[in-house]
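idk why but the lab printer keeps eating my pages so im just putting this in chat instead. protein + flavin-adenine dinucleotide:
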Amino acid sequence: MSEPFVIVGGDAAGMSAASKARRENPDLEIIAFEKGDWVSYGACGLPYYVKGEIEDLEDLVSVTATEFREERDIDLRTQHEVTGIDPQEQTVTVEGPDERFEQAYGTLLIATGASAIVPPFDGVNLDDVHTLHSLPAGAEIRSRIESTGPDSPETVGVVGGGYIGIEMAEALRGQGLSVHLFEMLPHVLAPFGETVAEAVEAELESQDVTLHLNTRVEGFEGDEAVQAVRTDDERVPVDLVVIGVGVQANADLAAEAGVELGESGAIATDEYGRTNLEHVYAAGDCAEMTNVVTGDPDHVPLALTANRAGRAIGQTVTGTPTPVGPIAGTAAVKAFDLEAARTGLIDEERAQDAGFNPISATITSASRAGYYPGGSPIEVNLVADRQSDAVLGASMVGEEGVAKRIDTIATALHAGLTVHEVEYLDLSYAPPFGPTWDPVLTAAKVLAGKLD
Ligand code: FAD
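predcted complex ->
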């Protein structure tokens, strides 16, 4: 019998690969090692669990460990950490609850994900200083904020104005807490561009989130538990802290085995998710992908990217080579009553660095026909290359119809459409869903006018 398909990491990338490989080959031995207790969980739902909109942690699990074992015939072992890879012998070293052993592999998938970055702040080890990257971490935060009694937190400091920071600000306000949000850059949501950021900042302030922009957090003060956030110019009393300043790829295990990393620090992979080592693949938050606009390696750790790459690798290792597909960095975030979204290259400097000559147009349109009740403004920022007329990216913000509208531009990026081609797309229209000229088309019309 051939050696098994071994997977390190039991979440989006790993279990998508396992499931697809099983569907394609009912006889293949598939072993997945997960160091924690949870598998196939949606960390993306954690802010809504903390908010109380999702009742149980179990609700975030899409397929249980038992279902993988009994219904999909996958040898899934939780509480088993892979601590080493020997590419010559084609084995991994595994530490389980009671034993340490070597497991041979025919093909190996590294799907170890990413970890929350914890800067070396003073007082970072105080009680009630949290990150939010695992289900147990979400459970701990929720149990603290829902606790009753004199220690129950009333004021929370959120460090970082990225999408997790914004979602947590909403979750914590939803639980009735006062929230201070600290961001060292001039704006929140840097990858979404200034137009979106300014709208989101206004929304945060209208929801009584106290914003500290251009503010570097230096540390936390307290005896046992945190009592204050110390910034470069003030001391803000808080009872709990959530740090959300980004993630780093869990790539040490791979690097120690001789797997090459890219410039981002994540694992370098080719179009099939292969690493530089024979029979070793990588997918998900631990791996770089190819950016569809620049053609260069990029690291944008998001859920669909992980699921998609895992699925493609599951198909490849069972005999049908399938590219993992490029990424556009398409993302959406809910900020209280606003939706914000982005895709592709929208930062002028980054576009120039990639060899483009960017030009952009920002328009304000509406989410519904002007006469149809209940509409609201949508701002669209569309970016293109002056020379080729190719669409490079877009960002959008509004109260409705944004998170899915960005997908038109994401599709345009994958298809390599020009602004003039987007201008003449046959998009849907009915009064409750948008104006006759969809905001995407209006943005393309205005940008095309600038290009002509
Ligand atoms: P992970 O989900 O990190 O899974 C990796 C697994 O590998 C972990 O379970 C880990 O325990 C295990 N592991 C690591 N090392 C070892 C080892 N040596 N041995 C055994 N097991 C190991 N993405 C979006 O697209 N949209 C969103 O709205 C969104 N919201 C998010 C909100 C939050 C709060 C967080 C934390 C993430 C969010 N994400 C979102 C990101 C998304 O969750 C990730 O992109 C996705 O989970 C990546 O899947 P993965 O399988 O690559 O890695």
